[in-house]
Task: structure prediction
Amino acid sequence: MELTLDEQFHSFLWSFALGAVISAVYIVIVVVRELVPPKEIRLFVGDVLFMVFAALMNFIFAAALTNGMVRFYTIFAEIICFGLMYMTIGRLLKNSAAFLYQIICRIYHLVGSFISNVIIKKCVFFIKKCKIVLKKAKK
Result:
């Protein structure tokens, strides 16, 4: 069964969307790798799982939109969108991830140290008061 020109154009545009989704997943993986460098086996397993995810998404896409036929223009659109997103948004997020991580860690440590100091001081004060009350109760 042949697809009409409208259906082909429709699947071409959806191919861009699929390329964007696959690229977004890969960008998240790359940013996480920048923040927490993986060991060799974890890197291998992560890459294999990503490839399985991408292949499964392509299979579902081909089965749903193009009647199970893989078309050159759909793969071309996915690759173009994936490449464009990775080269623009991916590079920007990858380069800024370490900087943003440091800022978030500094804010967390400032807030955490402030809160912990306040809580510790209040707990020490409360414990001292409890000791005084217990000493008075024993007499």
